Amino acid sequence: MDKIIITNNPLIHEKFASLYNVELHNKNYIEILEIVRDRIHMGHELLSHPLAGSVKPNETPYRTIIISREKKQLDLNSLNIIESAIATTRKFLSNRPTPNWNDTALHDFQVVDLSLIENVLSSIV
What we know:
The structure is a single chain. By secondary structure, the protein is mainly alpha-helical. The chain has four helices and three strands, in the order βαβαβαα. A three-stranded mixed beta sheet has the order 2-1-3, with helices on both faces. 31% of the residues are buried.
């Protein structure tokens, strides 16, 4: 199954750009979710959960989501999942914004995001 990886994590791009279609966006967490939502409206399907992992959306600035390359009819399940993820993220961010992490913490969050996506990719290849 062909896939598109949408991310704001430079480690994802560095590791997978030669293997997959990786779109690296200089956007924040919620903006990545919105990009994916817009793609779902165009007919792409979610292949990874937008809130995967145990790190809360207001703790990490990084998010990587995998969608189908192929466009079909609007997938209502994917749309419901991404809309719910956006609402959940907004709720978390309104309660407590993402801290201004130092470079070491940012790198750690990149590694966590990378690990999550490696696990997903191994299960959907």
